[in-house]
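Sample pair:
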Amino acid sequence: MNPIVTMMRATAVLSFTIGLTACASLPIPAEQVEAELLAADRAYEAYNLAHGYKAASLEYVDFEQGFMIEAGDGFLTGQKAIMAERQLDKVPSPVHWQPVGAMGASSADLGITWGSFVVDGDPDTTGDYVTVWRKVDGAWKIVTDTAVDDPAPAE
């Protein structure tokens, strides 16, 4: 084969490879990442309502990297410890939430959602939450979440 043709082919393959690498490392638009995160949070809440909080936690929490913070217990890691705090199995779940915002990394593999929640009861418990998400094998999974109850009304 002609050495010039061989060199041109090698240059073309190298240029194509560099072009693919550049495309793969382009940042994902923030709006797209935020939309994915909000959709994941809403899907988590829908699964919770249909199957219970325990089942939703088993489906959506990243037990490999995840952790929870519980007052008096500190950091909980691993499925057994995390699920010991997430045993609410009532269907439909009395826990409801609504995300109101999201922020994600341009790498599209880490982000947060936040919103408000209510736990039906007597009286209802309300408050706000923040959830940290990580993309695992193409699916958004929960790394951790925290909720802060609203103060009890003055009597």
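The chain is about 40% helix and 35% strand.
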